[in-house]
Amino acid sequence: MPRSKGAVSIRDVAAAAGVSVATVSRVLSPATADVPMRKETRDKVVRAIDELGYRPNDLARALLHHRTAAIGLVVPDISNPYYPPLVRGVEDVASSRGYRVVLCNTDRDPAKITGYLDTLIKTRVDGIVVAGGGWADVPDRTAVLGRYRTGLVAVGRHLTAHPSVRIDNVAASRAAAEHLIGLGHRRIAFVGGPASSTTVQDRAQGFRDALKASGLDGRAPVVRYGDFTEESGYELTREMLRLARPPTALLCANDRVALGAYAAAADTACRIPDDVSVVGFDDTPIARYVRPTLTTVAIPTYEMGSAAMRLLLAQFEGDGGPALETMPTRLVVRDSAAAPSAG
Amino acid sequence: MPRSKGAVSIRDVAAAAGVSVATVSRVLSPATADVPMRKETRDKVVRAIDELGYRPNDLARALLHHRTAAIGLVVPDISNPYYPPLVRGVEDVASSRGYRVVLCNTDRDPAKITGYLDTLIKTRVDGIVVAGGGWADVPDRTAVLGRYRTGLVAVGRHLTAHPSVRIDNVAASRAAAEHLIGLGHRRIAFVGGPASSTTVQDRAQGFRDALKASGLDGRAPVVRYGDFTEESGYELTREMLRLARPPTALLCANDRVALGAYAAAADTACRIPDDVSVVGFDDTPIARYVRPTLTTVAIPTYEMGSAAMRLLLAQFEGDGGPALETMPTRLVVRDSAAAPSAG
DNA sequence: TTGTAAGCGTTATCAC
DNA sequence: GTGATAACGCTTACAA
């Protein structure tokens, strides 16, 4: 019977088995697997352990070893379909290496970010993976992170001075725009997410670059900002489709925005791709299942997550300083973008 | 300068401020906010704290207080669009009450479930929220959970003997089927997820109940199983649409399956809802944005998550035994289901 | 082959 | 007002 009202501890096991706590520790610690011990003793201990349903306290171990085997994962919002694969990527390699992951949703709110960061440090996670923006107004914590030997890797380009995994949004967007131009489009619009997002800025930039390179920037390129939702894509597209000379092609900031564009097109009797071509970003599962199927830029979100976690593990092993891994994107050509109709 | 190679601890602060560790602890502990202390002393300590960038070690605190302020959240797969809102619901109320959440993806694999459960217990989380199935072959851990005073609440009906939050899938599915019947459909099929899922079983049951109640079960009701993906919905629907007398309406196990059905209909020149009506489950964001818009059963996933976390908090406060909270569902009527055409 | 005891970073109890 | 010090549950020299 456990000592006090508390949970069963190594002392209870020791008492039950009639040995010292050190002996119990020895049968549990992989580190001491090699020290010799009488089989009889070991058996007594093992028996006591499962009679009492004993589970060693990892907090105590962590305190001793200065290693919690936990990492923090900071994302804007897990409900945003972009993040789940990334989270899964992180969690998969984390758990395969014995790490737990603490999930934090920040809504890109600097106050929340700061709060989570401090909690994570106080609970002494071994490292942190941060994805998504909102960091502009976050007080710098690199010093504190350093003091507590807390690793950090960023997914994206919002946090320099730390290892990071990224994609080349400028190039990816430029390639998508060039695809549209190659199809014969001359009036193309970029229908966008939040102007404050570095991702959106890069994609808009790639779009402009493509227009300029093709000599299509006679008039100012049409770039509209909103946010990353279907609703935003719907509204923006509706507006544009009502113009006297509406764009014949839309490069959307992500698939959700593109889906909103689909709805707007349907509601204004515009056919895709006949009347207007649409290209998305992310290659969400739905891209393959909407009709027409959506041409979109595939982003290896899962791989970015797993790469980030691997970078973190490399940091733990002291592998060099800031690393930067750029993951490849790929334009997935489906049915939503075609040559503009003669009209 | 910190004592050893280790991180800065309360002793370093004490040394730097020229006071004892007890004094430092007093300025940090909210519990001892009322004990009198010379302002000058407090200031010295505060200054030392932020000069050193000191952050108290919550592991040590947890060891003392037998409370980690962490909870485990066990889901089959965060990449499945059903779970993110639930996870967010849990995390929101958790963080608002000062709890961190450790995310675990099990893929419904009993071995993984068991592994995560043991890790969570060893790290002494205060409680666990479990959602999704795969528990049939998981060794019972209630005894151990009890020993370590680990709370647990289940989302769904897969784990009895614990408080849980659920929805009435039988009734919800029945209502959806009755909607179709009311529209005039006579040949309705249930196109399903995994047969092993209690959720699917309940939805199939509600479907059968509705048919029977309307005297429509002359022939055996058509129920097809697969999994919860677009692909599965696509294949199943394709098959059925090729039948001599294809169903005029499809009750799909979830929205992803319904989306697959949309694609299959498009590819076999079937119009929705003219040739075939489609009803989904979950009311995912896309439901509003596909065309035609999808009639579907809304499930308050976010609220289920937050309710589950609140139940857990109630357990911590020792509020009674097993509770059961049943959340309401709602049929959202949109454009994908209409009266069958005369043909 | 096993036990004793110091220590990980805190808080809480008791002295002074 | 402030300081020693004994816990919390474990690991690991060092002794025996």
Keywords:
homodimer, 343 residues, alpha/beta, 6-stranded parallel beta sheet, 6-stranded mixed beta sheet, 12 helices, 16% strand, DNA-binding
Task: Provide a quick synopsis of the model.
With 343 residues, the first copy, chain A, is α/β, with parallel strands linked by helices.
Question: Can you describe this structure?
Answer:
The structure is a homodimer of 343-residue chains. Chain A has 343 residues and is an alpha/beta fold. Helix content of chain A is 41%, strand content 16%. Chain A is built from twelve helices and twelve strands. Chain A has helices at 10-17, 21-28, 39-52, 58-65, 83-96, 110-122, 142-147, 169-182, 198-213, 230-241, 255-267, 301-316, and strands at residues 70-75, 100-105, 127-131, 151-155, 164-167, 188-191, 222-224, 249-252, 277-282, 295-298, 324-327, 330-332. A six-stranded parallel sheet of chain A has the order 2-1-3-4-5-11, with helices on both faces. In chain A, strands 7-6-8-9-10-12 form a six-stranded mixed sheet, with helices on both faces. In chain A, helix 8 crosses helix 9 (198-213). Chain A is elongated and about 90 Å long. The N and C termini of chain A lie far apart (86 Å). In chain A, 48% of the residues are buried. At the A-B interface, helix 4, helix 5, strand 2, helix 6 and helix 7 of A face helix 4, helix 5, strand 2, helix 6 and helix 7 of B. Strand 2 of chain A pairs antiparallel with strand 2 of chain B. The first copy, chain A, binds a DNA duplex (16 and 16 nucleotides) through residues 6, 9-11, 19-23, 25-26, 28-29, 31-32, 35-38, 41, 56-66.
